[in-house]
Amino acid sequence: MSIMEYNGGSCVAMTGKNCVAIASDLRLGVQSISLANNFPKVFPMTDKTYLGLTGFASDVQTLYELFRYKVNMYKFREERQIEPKTFANLVSTSLYEKRFGPYFSFPVVAGLAKDDNPFICGFDSIGCIDFADDFIVSGTAAEQLYGMCESVYEPNLEPEDLFETISQALLNAQDRDAISGWGCIVYIITPDKCVKRLVKGRQD
């Protein structure tokens, strides 16, 4: 088994009409053994920028702490919050710094830019950026997520429709992946607020 699949877990980000959504499952396991059902893989970096981390669980926590530190340092130096595209480049360079002994994680970034345009992108373990206009997936259920997202995604969805689309895509994809699951956590980011929702899934 690949080290990227050791703990399981999946993440997906999706764009809408002046809004963006990012969601992850809640399972933490050791191969086929479930350890916890409350291990989210999406973390707030700013009010409008969120980071999804899948892969090896200790690297997920290490990267979250590293990027939280770097975002805070940026805020102190620049006296403003970091933009999603700037943060994406920060993630890319941070991962590339460790290319000879990379972190075992495939991050996903989602956020709203200053003009309220949605921004999403994904990375490989050494920081190569994959920009997208519709959706981006990561984790052990990535193949299933591609199929579900291509089936249900529509452009310019309103926030409530986007929530329904991303949650159904993730729930159905993780039902077809033995090492993802136990429900999901969904963030819907709009120009004036961010809504966090916990969605119950199959508990097996």
From TrEMBL:
Top-level taxon in the UniProt lineage: Eukaryota
PROSITE patterns named among the record's database cross-references: PROTEASOME_BETA_1, PROTEASOME_BETA_2
Family matches, as SUPFAM superfamilies: N-terminal nucleophile aminohydrolases (Ntn hydrolases)
Keywords: Cytoplasm, Nucleus, Proteasome
Compartments (UniProt record): Cytoplasm; Nucleus
Gene Ontology cellular-component terms listed: cytoplasm; nucleus; proteasome core complex, beta-subunit complex
GO MF term list: endopeptidase activator activity
A Pfam cross-reference name: Proteasome
Function as written in the Swiss-Prot or TrEMBL entry: Component of the proteasome, a multicatalytic proteinase complex which is characterized by its ability to cleave peptides with Arg, Phe, Tyr, Leu, and Glu adjacent to the leaving group at neutral or slightly basic pH. The proteasome has an ATP-dependent proteolytic activity.
Family recorded in the similarity comment: Belongs to the peptidase T1B family.
Protein name per the record: Proteasome subunit beta
Source organism of the structure: Schizosaccharomyces octosporus (strain yFS286) (Fission yeast)
